[in-house]
Design goal:
This protein has 164 residues and is α/β, with parallel strands linked by helices. The chain has six helices and five strands, in the order E-H-E-H-E-H-E-H-E-H-H. Strands 3-2-1-4-5 form a five-stranded parallel beta sheet, sandwiched between helices. Helix 2 runs antiparallel to helix 6. The longest helix is centred in the middle third of the chain and has 17 residues. The chain is globular, with a radius of gyration of 16 Å. The termini are far apart. The mean pLDDT is 96.
C-alpha cells in the first residue's frame, strides 16, 4: 500500500496547542504530515519565517513522520509538489468553516483530485488562535496555556531577543 501523506499549511505565527492537536490527529490517519509555513507577502507575521520553522521543528522533534517546510505560493501547488491530494484544515467555528469551504471550492477548480480534511477543534480549544497569543504578548498577558509546553522556553527566548 502507498504511504498516505497530507499537507497542513498555515502561517503558524506562532504555533499553538490547536496546531499541535491537528498534527497529532493527522498522525493517527496519515503516514506522513507535511507542516508548511506559508509565506504570504500580504501578511506581516509577528515571528519570522525562520522562527516559526524553528518552533515547529522543536515541537515535532523526534517525530520522523512530520516534515516542516516553507512554501510561497498556492496551496494546490504545494500539494502537487508534495504529491498528495490530502489537504488538512483545522476549524474552530462556523466562521472558519465558511472561509475554508470557500477555499475548498476555489481549490477544487484548480486541483480536481484535492481531498480536504477538516478537523474541528475540541471545545476547550475553540478560542485558541495565533492572534490570541500575539495579542496576549502585546498586552503582557499570560498565553502559556495556548502554546505547547515543548516550545514555551524557545518562544520566550525569541521574545527576549525581540525585547518583548
Amino acid at each position: 500500500m502507498d504511504k498516505k501523506k497530507c499537507v497542513f499549511a498555515g502561517t503558524f505565527d506562532p504555533p499553538t496547542t490547536g496546531h499541535e492537536k491537528v498534527v497529532n490527529k493527522c498522525l493517527k490517519i496519515f503516514d506522513e504530515v507535511v507542516v508548511a509555513v506559508m509565506v504570504n507577502p500580504e501578511k506581516s507575521p509577528y515571528f519570522s519565517e525562520n522562527e516559526r520553522v524553528l518552533l515547529l521543528n522543536k515541537l515535532f522533534s523526534g517525530e520522523n513522520r512530520v516534515k516542516i517546510r516553507t512554501f510561497a505560493g498556492a496551496a494546490v501547488d504545494l500539494l502537487e509538489e508534495e504529491n498528495t491530494p490530502f489537504y488538512v484544515r483545522g476549524i474552530r467555528n462556523t466562521v472558519d468553516f465558511e472561509y475554508e469551504n470557500l477555499n475548498f471550492f476555489a481549490n477544487k477548480k484548480l486541483k480536481k483530485d484535492i481531498i480536504t480534511v477538516y478537523f474541528p477543534a475540541e471545545q476547550e480549544d475553540l478560542q485558541v488562535s495565533s492572534s490570541l497569543v500575539k495579542n496576549s504578548i502585546r498586552f503582557k498577558k499570560d498565553y502559556n496555556d495556548y502554546i505547547p509546553e515543548k516550545i514555551r522556553d524557545e518562544l520566550h527566548r525569541i521574545l527576549e531577543k525581540k525585547n518583548v
